[in-house]
Amino acid sequence: MLELRPNCECCNRDLPPASREALICTFECTFCADCAAQVLGGSCPNCAGELVRRPVRPEAALARHPASTVRVFNPACHSHRTG
After folding, report:
1. Count of structural domains within the chain
2. Which of 43, 46, 47, 27 is nearest to 35 (CA)?
3. Are the CB atoms for 57 and 65 separated by under 8 Å?
4. Which residue segment(s) compose the domain that 70 sits in?
5. Structural domain contains residue 43
6. Separation CA 9–CA 58 (nearest Å)
7. pLDDT tens digits for 9-34?
8. What percent of the chain has pLDDT over 70?
9. pTM of the predicted model, to two decimals?
C-alpha cells in the first residue's frame, strides 16, 4: 500500500493525500509537479526512476488506511536542476 507521503522531497511543499500535483517513483520518493518538471526533468534524483502521478486514495479507504505523516526533505535535490 502506498504511503502517500505528505510533502515534496525537493521543495517541502505540502502534498495532501488528495493532491493531483504529487508525483512518485517506484520507491515512493515524492515530488510536486513543479519540481518534477522544472528541477528534476521527470526523473527521481534518488534512483533515476520515472516520476508518475500518485494515485488518490478514496476518502473511505483513507479513513481505514491513513496517509503517512513522515516528511522527507532534501533541498540538495535542486543541484539536479535540468536545462
Report:
1. 1
2. 43
3. yes
4. 22-80
5. yes
6. 23
7. 999 999 999 999 999 999 999 999 99
8. 95
9. 0.91
